Structures are given as structure tokens and as C-alpha cells.
Amino acid sequence: MIQARVLIRPKEGILDAQGKAVEGALPALGFSGIEHVRIGRIVELSASDTDQLDELCQKLLANPLIEDYEIETISG
Amino acid sequence: MRWGVLQFPGSCDERDALNACQIAAVALATEPRGAGGGVGEAPSSARNVVGDLTDPASSPRLVWHEETDLSDVDGIVVPGGFSYGDYLRAGAIARFSPAMTAVAEFAAAGGPVLGICNGFQVLCESGLLPGALLTNERTRFICRQGDLIVGDADSPFLSGYEPGQRISIPFKHQSGRFFAPPELLEEIESNNQVAFRYAPGQNPNGSLNDIAGVTNEAGNVIGLMPHPEHAVEAFAGSTDGLALFQGPAIAAAGAGA
């Protein structure tokens, strides 16, 4: 099986409400100089055939209207 | 006409949706004017379309997510809630349920399909409706009564309303920010696919163009974030949601008259 990691994040230009909320909390925690916080997700999986991963991302793991994704093969 | 209300693991508004279908049908069959502010006289043939509601075969029923046979229903409601826990993205997994495959075929054949809240998200994820729903601009869950303006989309679901009519419907969601890329948004607007907009100053979530609900190009599929099924009985503060559930029957009665 081949180990792969899929990184999914909000498309550029789309307001990321989660990222903004986290960014907004930073000053209260004493952090400064941190901006443009954006939150996505990582999906780790093992696949016998990585050719199908792109379709998997398009159909399920990401919504191409609002999210970009990158597939990274870790070992295999 | 008989409604089927989908039920996924994690749905939570399906009972209210069933109740709304029943109340709307009874009101249409017994009152000359739709109780939900329906416009004008409901054609007398509406009674025939609604059917005999004392007969269980005409009463709305739940459709379990594993069902694939929709041949005994004439309209589908995809209700609100948190289908499959809303894991991954709201509506993303429900889209692949056996019942949704059947709903896609039902919609392609022209059957009326109404998605409410999570149901709207499911229909967007399925590609049956354009656009996507993002986390509310302020990330908070909203739960309050608000006003919508009925759009000029050509849809049987809007037969009981006038374009521009202001209606009062509960808002209750956390991921209701309607989004479409610029070209798609332009297409939705130019095709008159906007079914409802939040009243001026009441956009609760940052939705583009104040869009609260849209239809597909054909008009037989409609989705909205606010909850018409919670606005069908006077004790709840508004009955403005009734007309939405009456729309397809009014349209069918009109076409048959």
C-alpha cells in the first residue's frame, strides 16, 4: 500500500471564517505579528493505486468550488 | 400529491418537515386561501392534487437513507440536521447515500425537490443546485426569526408567493454562507435562479448577494438555509412557510385546471 497525504485548504480569496476567528484570538493570548491564518485539513490514507486519488479529491475529499487540494505521496 | 421526507443518520428536522407537509396539504384542501399568505384563491382542483389525507397512502412519509424506491411519492424534502455528523463538509457524505442517488434521478425526471438547511447543503454538494455553503462569516450558530424576500425564480415551489413578498422564517444554522465563484454567481442571477434573499440588513452569515435560497435551472429543485418547516403553525410566530410546501400542488392544480 502507498501512503499518501492530501492537503485541502480554502481557495484564495474566500473568507476563511475559522482562520479569522483564530487570528482574532491571538492578541489576547499575547501573540503578535501573526496574520493571514487559514485553516484547512489533512487527510492521511493508504492506497493500493494512487491514480484514483485525484478523482477521490474531486468527488469527496474537497469541494472544488471552494477548496484547493494537493496530493502528496509519502512512501510506496 | 404525496411527500417523502428523507432521513439520514443525524437528520433532526425531518419530523417538523413531515408535519409541515401534512399541515400545508390540509390547509390547501380545506381553506380557499393558503394559510401561509398564499396568493389568491387556490384552485378547487387543489383538493384533487392533495388527495385524501385520511388515507395513509397520501400522507407524507419518511424515506430512510438506504431506500432507493421513490415511486410512491410525488415530492421530496431533504430536511435539516447534521447528516452523517456533517463530517468532512456539511452534506458531503449524505450525497453518496442510496436515497440521494434516487433523488437525483427523481429530480432529473422533473420531480419537485426541496432542500432545507442541511438539505440545501446536500443538494449543493450533489450538484443538483449551484453553489456551496460556507461557515457563517462570524462562525457563530444563528437561531432567530428573520425576514426573507421572495425572488423571481420560475419554480413551482414559489407558486404560493408573489415575487418581492416579505416573509418571516426562522434562521437556524452555522454553515449558511452562500458562495459561488463570480461566473457562476452571474449565471444564477441572470437565469433568475434566486428563490429567496435575506431582507435588506438581515443577511446573517455573509451570503453573496444576500442569497438565502436558489433553484436549479429547471426550477423543480430548490434549496434554502432558513427553515420554512418551523413556520407553519401560528403558535410558532409565523405561518409564512406553508406556501412553500403548497407550491408544487398549487402549480400542478393550476396546470391541470
- General form of chain A: elongated
Q: What's the gyration radius of chain A in Å?
A: 16 Å
Q: Output mean pLDDT of chain A.
A: 94
Q: Sketch the topology of chain A as an H/E string, one letter per element.
A: EHEHE
Number of helices of chain B: 6
Largest sheet of chain B: 9 strands, mixed
The two chains with the largest interface, and their residue counts, are:
A-B, 11 and 20 residues
Q: What portion of residues of chain A belong to β-strands?
A: 25-35%
- Name the strands of the widest sheet of chain B in spatial order: 2-1-3-4-11-10-9-6-7
Overall helicity of chain B: 25-40%
- For the secondary structure, the number of strands of chain B is 11
The class by helix and strand makeup of chain A works out as alpha+beta
The chain-level structural class of chain B is alpha/beta
Instruction: Work out the strand percent of chain B.
Output: 15-25%
What is the makeup of the main sheet of chain A?
Answer: 3 strands, antiparallel
Q: In terms of per-residue confidence, which ranges of chain A show pLDDT below 50 for 5 or more consecutive residues?
A: none
**What does the average pLDDT of chain B come to?**
91
